[in-house]
Amino acid sequence: MFRLMTRSKLSVLLVFLIVALVFTGCGNTDKEAEPSSALHLEISHVVGGSSLTLNSATPYTTPAGESFTVSTFKYYLSNFKLGKADGTEYAVPESYFLVDEAKAASKTITLSGIPAGDYSSLTFMVGVDSTHNVSGAKAGALDPINSMFWDWNTGYIFAKLEGSSPQAPGNHGVLLHVGGFKTPNNAIRVISPTLAGATIQIRQDRVPTVQMQADVLRMLSGPNTIRFADTYNIMGAGPSAMRLADNYAAGMFTVRQVQEK
Amino acid sequence: MPSFLLRRLAVLWCLGLSLASCGGNEKTEETGENSHTTTPYQLTLPSNLPQAISIPPDNPLTVEGVDLGRKLFYEPRLSRTGTQSCGSCHQQSKAFTDGLTKAVGGDGLPHSRNTMSLANVLWETTLNWDGAATSLEQQARIPIENPVEMHQLLAEGVRKLQQSDLYPPLFQKAFGTSIITEENVLKALGQFERTLISANSRYDQYLRKTGSLTPTERQGAAIFNNHPGEVGGVFIRGGACHHCHFSETGLFSSPDFFNNGLDVNFADAGRGAITGLASDRGKFKAPTLRNIALTAPYMHDGRFKTLEDVLDHYNEHVQTTSAFVDPNVLLSNTPNGTRLDLTATEKTQLLAFLRTLTDSSFVTDKRFSDPFKQ
User: Which stretch is the leader sequence (chain B) (predicted)?
Assistant: First the structure.
C-alpha cells in the first residue's frame, strides 16, 4: 500500500505516526515543564528535653507531674501548603502522610512537584480533611491497614498516643485517640509553625530540608493540662479529643532549621 | 524518506500499541529450551476486600502455575516419610487448619505452634505467628524442611518430583522448563495460595446487601467495632477488637504483632525471638478471624478449645501486668474498671457475630480441594 502513495501523502502519514507514537508512549506529555523541585521534611519526636523511645524502661514525666511510657505515637499530616511573601500559596496535591514513631522511614516526608520559588510559610493539617474521612480512595497513607480508621461515622483517627501510666486508673493503660471531623467536635487542626524568618528556597537543583520536631508533652499540655488520672482513654469525636487537638495545634510542632541543600 | 524506513516505523508503531494494550491473554516466552505459553490467572477480588494487592513481579499468577501449585500443595512426596503434604495440616474443611492444639509433623513429632488458616494470605505481609516470613515463596520452604513438619530438604523433594512422570511436563507448562528447581516449586505453591480468597460469608453478603444479619449478630458487630469509653457524656460499650483484627480492611487481621495478655511469662517469645527486643516478647500476629468458628483450637499454642474460652480470656482473664501488654486489651466497659466487663448477653452477641464470618463456599470450593482425591 505504501507504494501507491505519493511523497506528500507519505509525509502526512509519517507525522501522524510520530504523533501517535508520542501519545501511546508514556502519556506524560509535559507541556513546557515549569521548573519544579522538592522539599524534605524531617521529623523528630521528643518528650520535653529527651528524644522519644518507644517502650522505654525509664518513664517520662508530664508537666502535670505524672509518669508515663509510650508504646505508640502516630498521626496524620496532610494538605500541605507553601506560601510566598506576596501571599500566594501552592497547595501540594494529594499530600497525606502517616508519621509513625515505629517506622523510621515515615518520619521523612518528601513533597515533590513544588514550583521553584522562595517560600516563607509552611502550612499543614494534623488529621484528614472531612472529604477523605467519608469517601475517596483509601490507599497509601489512608489505607485502613494502618490501624487509623474507626468507621464511616467517625472516620480517621488523626493522632494516637498509647502507653501506660501508674496514675491512669483501671489497668493503667493510656489510649488517646484523637479524631472527629463534624461540628461541634471537629478536631481537624491546620497549623503553620513559624519558620523564624527563614525562607524555604526551592530551585530545580536545590531540595531543601526542613527539620521539624514534635514534642509529645505539648499534646498533654498547653491550653489544656491533661492528667492521666482523669483523661486516659479518649476515642472518637468529643470534647476530650478537642482538648488534645487544641494542645497539639498550639505548639507541638516546631521548625528547628531550614537547611539549604 | 525511503519507504523501507517508513515500513519499519509502522511496524514499530504496531508493536508499541500491542505492548501498551497489555490486554493480550496469551504470553509466550523464549526460554532457550522450549517456547511455552501460559494463560494469566484472573483473580477476582471481592469488592469489600482491599483492591491493592502485591504479587511478586517475578511470579505472576498463571492458570498453569496455580494448577501445579495446587498439586504440590497436596503432594506428600515433598515430605520425608511421603505421608504428609501442606494439605495434611492445612485442611480445606477447617479453613485450612487441622483441629489440633499444636501441629504434628510427618515424623509424629510435635510442633510448638497451632496451625494457621490460609484464608486471604494473598494480603498478608507478615507470615507465621511471629512474622518469620514476609512472602509466601519464602514461607513455603519452612514447613517443607522443618523437622517438626515435612522434614525433607527441598532439594530432595525436587529430586523426587523430577523422577515422577507427573511433574516434569507440568513444570514445563508453568515455567517453560521440565528441569524442576526449588525456586519454581516455591513459586507454584505461592501462586496457589494466593487464590485462597474467602469473602462470601454471611457477613460479606450483608455488606454487599445480598443477605442479612440478625439483630443479635449486628449488635455483636457493634461490640466488635466499638472502643469502650465515654464520648461527650455518653458511655459507648464495646470490645475494641477492631483495633487489632481490622474489620475495615475486611481481613480481620493485622500485619502487626501484639501482646494480647495471654501470659505474664511467655514460653514462646514470638516476635521477640525474631527482633531480639524485650518489648516484643510475647507479641504475636493478630491472625485473621475469618472462618474462626472452623479453626479451633485458638491462639499460637492452641490453648483455647472454644470461642467461648477466647471471649472469657478477653473479658475476664487478660494478664494486665504482663510486660508490654497492649493497652487495647486493658480497656473496660466499667468506668475505671480492670476487666473488659462485657455482659453475658454482649458476649453472646459477639460470638454470634464471629460465627457470621464462616464462609461455607470457601471450604467446599472445588478449585481449592485435593486434586488427587477427585
Answer: 1-23
